[in-house]
Amino acid sequence: MAEEKKGRAVATATAAKIPKFVRGNLSATLKAKEEGKKVAAAFIADGQDEIMRAMDIVPAWGESFSGVCAAKRDAEKYLQKAESDNFSRSLCTYATCNIGFDMIREEQGGAMPEGAPWGGMGRPDMILGNGQLLCDPRFKWPQATQHYQRDVPVFVTNMYYPPWDPNVNHHDQEAIYVKYATEELRATVKFCEKITGKKMDWDRLAATVELSDKTWDLFIDTYELRKHIPTPMDTGDAMNTMVPLTFNLGTQEAYDFYVDLKAELEDKIANGVGVADPEKYRVIWAAGLPSWFALGDFQYFNSKGVVFPVEVTYRGCEKVERLDLPKTNDPLEHIAWRWVRYWTHWYDAAKKRPGSTPKVERIIEYIEDYKCDGAVFHSAFSCRSWHAGIMQQAVTLKNVYKDMPILIMEGDIVDISSYNEADTHNRIDAFIETLAAYKKRQG
Amino acid sequence: MTELRDGNGLAAAEKLYTQYGSRARELKASGKKVIGYLTALGPVEIMTAAGVVPIRLKGNVSEAISKGDAYMESIVCPFVRNVFDAAVKGKYDFLDGMVLPHQCDSIDRTNETWSYTLKLPYWHFLNVPHVTDDPSITFMKEILRIFITTLEKFTGTKITDEAIANAVKAHNENRRLMRELYDLRKSNPPLISGVEMMKVLVAAMSLPVDESSALIKAVTEEVKERKPAGDAKGKRIMIIGDQIDDIAVIDAIESTGACLVMDDLSLGAKMYWQDVDATADPVQGIAERYLRKLKIPTTFVGSADTYEGILEERFGHMKKYVNEFKVDGAILFIYKYCDPYGFEVPAIKSYIEAAGVPVLYLEDEYSTSSLARVKTRIEAFLEMIA
Amino acid sequence: MDYFAGVDIGSTMTKVVIVGDRIEASLVGPTGPEHRKLANRVMEEALRQARLTFEDLTYIVATGYGRINVPFADRQITEITCHAKGLHSLLPSVKTVVDIGGQDSKGIKIQNGKVMNFVMNDKCAAGTGRFLEIIADSLGVPLEKIGELSLTAERIAAVSSTCTVFAEQEIISRLAGGEPIANLMAGIHDAVATRVYSLVKKLNVEPDIAVTGGGAKNIGLVRALESKFGQKLLVPPEPLITGALGAALMGKDIFERYTSEGQKPTRSGHKLEEATFFK
Amino acid sequence: MAYVLGIDVGSGYSKAVVLEGDEIRSFAVIPSGGDYREAGRAVAEAALEKAKLTLSDMVRTVAAGYGCNMVDIAGETSTDLSCHAIGVHHLFPSVRTVIDIGAQYSRAIRLHDEGRIANFIMNEKCAGGSGKFLQVAAHILRINVSDIGELSLKAQKPVEFTTGCAVFAESEAVSRISEGASPADILAGIHNAMASKIVTLAVRVGLVPDYAVTGGGAMDIGLVKAIAAELGTNVIVPEIPQITAALGAALLAKERV
User: Fold this and answer.
1) Sign of CA dihedral C114, C118, C123, C124
2) Is C123 an 8 Å CB contact of chain D?
3) In angstroms, rounded to a whole number, what is the distance separating the alpha carbons of residues D51 and A136?
4) Are D119 and D202 in contact, with CB atoms under 8 Å apart?
5) pLDDT tens sequence for chain B (386 residues)
6) How many domains does chain D have?
7) Which chain B positions have a beta carbon within 8 Å of C79's beta carbon?
8) Do both D122 and D146 map to the same domain?
9) What's the pLDDT at A318?
């Protein structure tokens, strides 16, 4: 029922530390002033994490804050505020929720909106956008925000990777993309130096990049423990445990978090503790951001013996050695290579399977490695970037696994008006029955 | 195509508008290769230089999306969905290939849906950047060169810089001619109606550049002959939006006695106001035009020091139009699910209103299903500014 | 004495108002495919009320969703302009009008009877009277009762789906889940009020605020709107007829403007007849 | 002889089937109204009465459908999707794709050879293509839903509907009527609009013949014809298309005996 707050689906003790991370990141934006630090409104997976960390710039994660508003079912008033100035209800609700919040704060002369979740988010000194392939709001949202915070400078960089084309060898294009991304990152550094009035400490940046490489590796090592049957950790948890990687990359805390998580998972495996008991079906969360206001649905799956040992969403990294990055002494060029190679990591595999695509190859790899019986996609209506193209992925997947059950759920990341619990559970039940029939046939 | 005689330019445009793509179909039958493309970012100069027939794709606002829904999400831009639906239904069965320029998520994220569903012999995704700094220009040149090579591979003929330079000349001329026709809208009442103009704009984007230029010339000569008729009471309206490629909305405006005198549409002024500079390396000029000159919301602009300055960079051209074409009111017509335009609405609206021009903001699908409602809004807006 | 008629054909109701130096007659009849062509019947009835003949009418203005279907009207004007006009004549202090009709919800900013700005709901039935109709219908509660019913709620049972059809289903299952009908009614009124409020908020809202249209007859909705706007809302005595009244008054203005210039306004010349294209 | 009972409590109607062995001993269909628990009881009683039996004669009872969790007289529950699959397979073993048109949802269900559910798609945020469309049509034309099918067959030139939304189809229909479209043309237009939406769902689960159309919508001959035309092949319609899920539930109960 809409008015009940859903508890997050957290099975691991380590994941319970996540709210601290999120609160910490929010309060950092509030404390920055007195600590003499600059705050940058920033977006996840924009390749700028290490630059900010190395320059003591405090990131204000709009997506995170909107997610918190959604999880607390507190977003509607901000969505409406944005709507009142003609922002369409069909736009990215991460953005409109944040913009609505900013609008209220600006109207109050900077005073925090009353009842802002977890104390709210601080006013930025700069906005770092990225007109990259990840989504349009990453450069439109900063523009829209600047309309209400006219004194806040906006810098938008651009990082691309070669588009998928089965008839083209993307390796021939990598150099162009890496050169471009490196120059764009360099421009980001220049902008940050201008705003902070500090010079970049290149050794510190190199060290930060090294730390995030280590974090990437540790993250994958940790998550690959979930291959174990029964799986010790579910996607419901992963929607929490992604926080350090996604929002705190390049910090020791992030690294340490996964040390703890890894230890806990190893312990669970040793004691044969699984997410669901008994574990009946293993399903991949194949694409899509979750409905932050309905994370409890993962528990609903688990309660019926369905577990998600793996998800594509928020697994924003790979074992660095698997990317086999060319050696370079320029940390920015290293980030660029890591960027291009990560986003094109499944291209070669896709070439080997006519009719396939890299996105689908990634899903196939996980289905095989994690022994999955089915796939669930989530399509959020307000976010084209992650959710347009899902039907195509599902179709392509069906060509490989003929009768494997696939469920495409529809909802949103923030806007609860798209959600009907009874209806969602009804679909989940039917999906589980298709899983049953499928497993039976598999024998 | 129908021979252009004096005084039948508009009739020819009408025919090409109602039977969209008929000329490309003819040319295909005569052995030409036809390449479809989406949006104002399709580098027509290069396609022309390659000797293929470029046609900018449109949908059909009065046809409900059906077959396409089996492959493409309904959260995708309704324009893109409608064009895709038309393609799936075989309306563009004469295409040899397609070029999808990276304008927005709705195009980028459906690239595979398009290519894997339509399975055309030639396919290219042109990865146009969203920012305009020098590294981006260099990058744009690189991807244009990649585009050129794939076209060469497909057609089996080299695309010389000379051919590109000539194509640039032809398209600059085409744009000059269209601006000349736009000038005839400055009189009061305008010599050419918004509905007629829309038909010409649509017809023009379905033709090889020389035929397009010939058509525009013929229309201009025909329209020049007209004498400014009657006393002009009708309000002078400007429409702003992306690809509005049907007369339905324009007719809704003009049937109330107002006249559409100017646009900032992606198949109108946005297309025809900026030429390609003749540069030593012709690709340089093309890169600069598409990246730095085109005023579209998917290209980030923000180099000015003040926000006011940035607004001028982004929307200043609209203020010029307002003055040059004596605009009384502006209609901002945005498609649902369009992030690039959607996030600009408050900025554009307040900017134009600050210029003393009332703005009606309409958000709709690429469909006539709600035309009656849209019409009521437009009429009320005109009653309001009367 | 000159008499002016306004005909407002909405998606669910047809309204006719005749004015001389006062309101001579005002009538509300249903609109349906077979009714709306019979605007002439409603007009005949109104004339009978006013003891007038069609020939006594000096000028007729049609408004509303079906305004083009009134052959005997001399002029068509949108309901937005007419609502502003009509309401201003009834409640001169009002600066913001919230009109909740069968298919449309509107917000109108007015200044001495003129439209300064307006907004209309997009092609979504949420936040329109139709939403309430469908819900009332599916729960078998008479439409005129749901407002009262909602006021007896001990709490507002929030309804999450905005889409009319799915909200209907959500409510049915919530009802089955034991949620009292009154709470759910409060929930849907709150939902409609919320949609209408965020729509009207696009105007810079100034008091006094009035509610018109079928929605204004729903006390539950008016209360819900008041809690959103955080102030008392005015409701005209006959909230359904403001559009038709405005149309009649617009006709009066047009006529007087012409005569002051020594001209006669052009009439449609149609007799009081059905819209011919229905035959 | 062992009797089992299958109940399907849908958002529009509730259905019950009493099974004797493999034979349908009796069935009942009643409007669900607000209270699913009550609807479940009532429809079961109606069916039992026809069979001159009581609940105590039932060895097992399975409830399915939107309100199945409310039905207290059932031993266990299942989703109506699987039950449709089982019910249809029982009646027509050759069917691989079931198109079910309910009051608010339309669904395409793919069946395994042995009649289990392999895949399914339902209309999501949009009620276009659902029975709601027909209710709306009946509402504006002031006719009974049951008369729609026959009337639609008289269409001269079906109206082209541009909206998919059931609620706004109403305003579109009204304006088409005002443009002179006949009720038959409107209905045929609505059927075509629904059919193309529904078949789109079927495409998404993978078109595999034979096709069966079930649910209240299947009682609309005009709609069934439109769907067949859109599919370009014949479709099978059960004698009593509304009760396939209830039948499936009963079969499930029998299986579990």
Assistant:
1) negative
2) yes
3) 63
4) no
5) 556 765 689 999 999 999 999 999 999 999 999 999 999 999 999 999 999 999 999 999 988 788 888 889 888 999 999 999 999 999 999 999 999 999 999 999 999 999 999 999 999 999 999 999 999 999 999 999 999 999 999 999 999 999 999 999 999 999 999 999 999 999 989 999 999 999 999 999 999 999 999 999 999 999 999 987 666 778 999 999 999 999 999 999 999 889 999 999 999 999 999 999 999 999 999 999 999 999 999 999 988 999 999 999 999 999 999 999 999 999 999 999 999 999 999 999 999 999 999 999 998 889 887 787 788 889 989 988 88
6) 2
7) 376
8) yes
9) 96
Identify whether C92 is preceded by a cis peptide bond (ω within 30 of 0): no
ipTM of the complex model: 0.82
What CATH topology corresponds to C3-83+241-278? Nucleotidyltransferase; domain 5 (3.30.420)
DSSP string, D91-145: H-TT--EEEEE-SS-EEEEEE-TTS-EEEEEE--S--TTSHHHHHHHHHHHT--H
Where does the pLDDT of residue D125 fall: very low under 50, low under 70, confident under 90, or very high at 90 and above? low
Query: How does strand A281-287 pair with strand A306-311?
Result: parallel
Does any domain span residue A278?
A: yes
- Choose from C124, C160, C162 for mutation: most chain A CBs within 10 A: C160
DSSP for residue D215:
S
Residues D188/D152, Cβ–Cβ less than 8 Å: yes
Q: Kindly state whether residue A254 falls inside one of the protein's structural domains.
A: yes
* Residue contact C130–D170, C-beta within 8 A: yes
For residues D49 and A128, what is the distance between their CA atoms, to the nearest angstrom? 72
Measured distance CA(A270)–CA(C242) in Å, rounded? 76
| Residues D207, D211, D214, D219, CA torsion sign | positive
> What residues contact residue B227 under an 8 Å CB cut-off, 6+ apart?
none
Q: Is the domain of D65 the same as that of D163?
A: no
Are D104 and D217 within one domain?
Answer: yes
Task: Give me Rg for the CA atoms of chain C.
Answer: 20
- Assign residue D33 the CATH number of its domain: 3.30.420.40
Taking the domains of chain B in order of start, what are their residue ranges?
Answer: 228-385
Nearest CB among C34, C123, C165 relative to D104 is that of C165
Mean of the pLDDT values across residues A199-210?
A: 97
Does A172 reach chain C within 8 Å, measured CB to CB? no
For residues A353-384, one letter each, b for 16 or more C-beta atoms within 10 angstroms of the residue's C-beta and e for the rest, the string is eeebbbbbbbbbebbeebebbbbbbbbbbbbb
Question: Cβ B373–C104 below 8 Å, yes or no?
Answer: yes
In CATH, the number for domain C92-229 is: 3.30.420.40
Which residue range(s) make up the domain with D186?
94-237
Residues pairing with C61 in the sheet: C6, C75
Domain region containing A132: 14-442
Gap from B229 CA to chain D (nearest CA, Å): 32
Q: Do C160 and A419 touch (CB under 8 A)?
A: yes
- CATH of segment(s) B228-385: 3.40.50.11900
Into how many domains does chain A fold? 1
Q: Does B384 contact chain C (CB < 8 Å)?
A: yes
Residues of chain C with CATH 3.30.420.40: 3-83+241-278, 92-229
